[in-house]
Amino acid sequence: MVRGRKGGGYRVEREILDEERLEELSQRLDISQTRAPLAYRLKNSLRCSVSSLKRRVVGCLPVLYWLPRYSIWDYGMPDLVSGISVGIMHLPQGMAYSLLASLPPVFGLYTSFYPALVYFFFGSSRHISIGTFTVLSIMVGSVVERLAPDANFLIVNGTNATVEVKVTERDLYRVQVAAATTVLAGLIQVILGLVQFGFVGTYLSEPLVRGYTSSAAAHAVVAQLKYIFGVSPTRFSGPLSLVYTLVDVCMLLPSTHLPTLLISSVSITVLIVAKELNNRFRKKLPVPIPVELIVVLCVCISVVGEIPSGLQPPTVPQTSVFSEVVVDAFALAIVGYAISISLGKTFALKHGYKVDSNQELVALGLSNAVGGFFQCYSVCASMSRSLVQETTGGKTQMAGVASAVIVLVTVLKLGPLFQDLPKAVLAAVVFVNLKGMFKQYSDILTLWRTSKIDLLVWLVTWVSTVLFNLDMGLGASIGFALLTVIFRTQRPRYSVLGHLPGTELYLDMETHTQVREVPGITIFRSSATIYFANAELYLEALKQKSGLDITKMITYKRRQEAKQRKRERRAARRARREAKRQKQALRMASQRSRRTVFSVEEGAGQMRESGADSLHEEELSWKERENSTVFVMPETPHNSWVYLKGIDPETSTLGSMSDLQDGDITTLGSSSEDTLSRDLERVSLGSLGKWTWDIHSIILDISPANFIDTVAIKTLRNIFHDFGEIDVDIYIAGCQTPVVEQLEQGGFFTDISKERLFTTVHDAVLYCLNHRGAGTSSRYETTLSDVFGCR
């Protein structure tokens, strides 16, 4: 509000908003938006300003954000040096990993070129190196060998009647299968990114990923043994294929080609020594020594095969194989994304920038989809190359462009130099690069000391992946990891809290000896949320911790109430029979002119003497009733009959009406059922004397719960009702706002007041002490000063 003031100035008055006012205004705003027409809300959602359009475009193309700010003087030289170093690593790794994918080596070079250029435009990480990777190469190899085995391309040589494999046709079809699988995996990643499904990588925990990559290393080792020893084992696919291949290789060891084994051994030794020297002197070396490329160039003596010069034109992948590889493509999409986002977030945290999970999913998907049209197979970030790119001073993805240029030059001009490269050297490169994955086996000892469940996830992942191959092993390991989460939430830690003197803190009484129990109050907490899988266990733990077996107590009470109702019905039947006898006695008494006081036994005798044989059986059963009654006849027939309760008719002495207490007489003219219901005492566990307890309130601390379902809501409602029947009040503390909303939607507050909800446990304790702490029972009488030491 603006008001004028003297001197030409203005005074601005603003409303001071408290919490209630803010909540009221927000509710009005929500209601106004909810009640707005659908067309208006749709138009408002599609409205786009220049600034919002710019943000969306930059979000889709992160290169537009950092490239205009790129400083050649600051970033140019570090990115160039880093890119050359990574590009040199791309050459031997690309050709070596293509062997893991069961593809010709040149396609590994293609895979190192095209995806890196696509990621340059769409990626949000500045330090990861996109290209071939061990695990994905093995996964692609398992797919192409399953769909294009050697047995499908056999031909009989007419000259010497031998069976040969049509290698050219086989490799061509394998390239088509790998490209189709890569395109489908990329489309899956793009779709998941567009629907904001970037959190899918969180379902792959670190123990699962490390166990999976360790088992993938085992697959890589077995796959390279044939190149190391120079043997030709039978190709197997499906479950236990690794075991069958290993057995077959062992059986072929007597026929090892010794020159090939010698080259492999020397290459592995040189690579290991050189890499260790690189690690030891990495702070003194400006760039790592490209030992892999040096070994490859020095040992060009055997048959990798023809490496054509130039790039291949794009081709449309074979969509006919999509239905056969959809499961494998999904596994490739998830594993590749999980590895890339973990590396990207690690470098982003170290260098102080942010990586968008959904944008990374889209960027990786486009890299795979576009690369698939150029005969590339699935890519992700490589740990070794990313570390080199970061440690050699790389600042942006311009280093990725520089490495792609190195690969391009090699493909265009230097391809024929690698035609005589022995596959044994490439296998040695694979072996040495798996060293980091071999070190992950030390996780077993670490997890044994820290977490047995995570160790179990690691071992199950490793065993399932080794035995059932990479695709089925991944599914089995994810399923088992989710089961461990369900198991841990189903079996949480239940505890009773006590008060820490001098504070408002309430801690577990079993683990903290300084805390004290609040008299008359049980504070119960579960370490996990409450839902259908643990709702029943939550109730059982509450009964155990509170010492009140509410199920048995309520069952006992129900039985006693049933017996009470049975006695009421029996007493009502007796009352009706007595009323019938009274009518007969009134007719007999009306014939007499004087007042007569008689006992029931005498009246029964008179009725028997008058020939009322039909009443004999009823009279005997009436004598045996539990609550004996003596009747007194009024002076006139118009007055009401009264009877005295709780007196044995055989031993009682009758007096006048004035001798009876007011509470001991009941008018027979009133309804007999109402009379008996009012006179019979209501059954309660305290009056029955079977149980005694000193708890008057139970506080449920559900602060760990972040959601609640209908089963848990029903369980909480039953807890409130059941404990209320034994005069124990239930309260809820620490309830988060989403949980309160779910309780409201579930109808929890239809019969339970919101006054039972408290923000903190301390507030609930103070309320209980004020409400029930004094005056309910001397066994738990207390005051605030007694509990909290305050005045």
UniProtKB/TrEMBL annotation:
Transmembrane segments: 99-122, 177-199, 242-273, 285-305, 325-349, 458-487
Gene Ontology molecular functions: secondary active sulfate transmembrane transporter activity
Annotated Gene Ontology cellular component terms: membrane
Membrane topology qualifier: Multi-pass membrane protein
Keyword Membrane: yes
Composition bias, Basic residues: 564-584
Keywords, sorted A to Z: Membrane, Transmembrane, Transmembrane helix
Record bears the keyword Thylakoid: no
Subcellular location: Membrane
Boundaries of every STAS domain copy: 511-768
Pfam families to which the protein is assigned, alphabetical: STAS, Sulfate_transp
Alphabetized InterPro entries for the sequence: S04_transporter_CS, SLC26A/SulP_dom, SLC26A/SulP_fam, STAS_dom, STAS_dom_sf
Region entry Disordered, spans: 559-592
Annotated PANTHER family: SULFATE TRANSPORTER
Protein name as annotated: Solute carrier family 26 member 6
Organism per entry: Astyanax mexicanus
